[in-house]
């Protein structure tokens, strides 16, 4: 039997989809890229913004038309399934609605649907870590996410995550190490530890810094990354740990959200711009080449032009390497949804495009400053554009690099001299035309 899967949203969903695929393969399914060939169609959804839900719903509607012809089973998984539960059955043609804590019931639900057409909704909560340790490297053998936490116990006033994913639960250290070991043994060279707020990790007396230390010592030949860091909980000991382990990459994703202290307060973020600035400056000073990326929201309720200009000014000052930028989207049940969404849509769009152009300029300047430097690049793939073939890789600071070279280099870490830049992307060539294998 074959399955087809589409994933929306954050790294957590990408990770969960990888685990769902492992479960399906163990249940003797094989993957197909064509939904019309599939016996089982899965859509792993995101609820963070209304737009994300609308996109998923539109796609589910299209997939429904396919399944009507092929008689496949259609499952809606992830945060939107958790949020809407049986309401999703209003879209006739959906057979299974399953939330992120209930994935162990996916295969029995599929069997029931095939046997007698019965529909299943399972949004049961489970505070335990639901997936076991992966013994295969999966579809992305060079890079992998490893979940270290699920849920979130913060109450940012705009965010739906705590209500759809539940409170923060840390995964036992031993289980994280076991998964990292298995992945590295399977050929993974770049491991990203993921959680909504990795700095809130605790297992007994092991903090996130302790976990980072243990993971980087366990896998000295792999690049280690982590996301998402929270400015409220980011500690000096994390930066200090990064300085002691060469394999921890010099990149921190540290969502700022707004450059205005009054807006940050209404967002209940738990830090001000002063603390944020201190972390960025300390990280850049301590670790040469440190890349800082961020998330920003424009048009939060009550955001004045002056508040927005403070965000623009802080972006210029802190010179982010890149940023994900969003228009505020009121999410049902969140505190901010009850506030007056008073920034008109057109004005949100104007602020967003102004911010995008500032971030693009600042980030291009940081890319241009790398020209002439030699950087370690993990060669990830060979790509083609028309007739031209080129290699594609990532620096330690997470920038994309294009270069010419033999496809045999895929999987190697090579020294590359940067020759030009375009936006956030770089072009370069192998040092002396040769890879230095690591
Ligand atoms: N846990 C991370 C943190 O605290 O920064 C981020 C998690 S969230 C999935 C990713 C990003 O989506 C957030 O950093 C925020 O910028 C954005 N986001 C979340 N809720 C939003 C909303 N209601 N409207 C617009 N953007 C939102
Ligand atoms: Fe949402 Fe805030 Fe938790 Fe991030 S830290 S997931 S923005 S509640």
Q: Any overview of this molecule?
A:
By secondary structure, this protein is of the alpha/beta class. 34% of the residues lie in helices and 24% in strands. It contains twelve helices and 21 strands. It has helices at 11-26, 50-70, 79-84, 106-116, 161-165, 173-185, 208-218, 236-244, 261-266, 273-286, 305-318, 345-368, and strands at 2-7, 30-31, 40-45, 73-78, 96-98, 120-122, 143-147, 149-150, 169-170, 190-194, 202-203, 206-207, 223-227, 251-253, 291-298, 322-327, 374-385, 388-395, 400-403, 413-422, 425-430. The strands form six sheets. The chain has a six-stranded parallel β-sheet with strand order 2-1-3-4-5-6, sandwiched between helices. Helix 8 (236-244) packs parallel to helix 10 (273-286) and helix 11 packs parallel to helix 12. The two termini are 40 Å apart. The model has no long low-confidence stretch (mean pLDDT 94). The structure holds S-adenosylmethionine and iron/sulfur cluster (SF4). The site of iron/sulfur cluster has 9 residues, from helix 5. S-adenosylmethionine is lined by residues 10, 48-49, 158-159, 161, 196-197, 228, 230, 255, 257, 295, 297, 326, 328-329, 331.
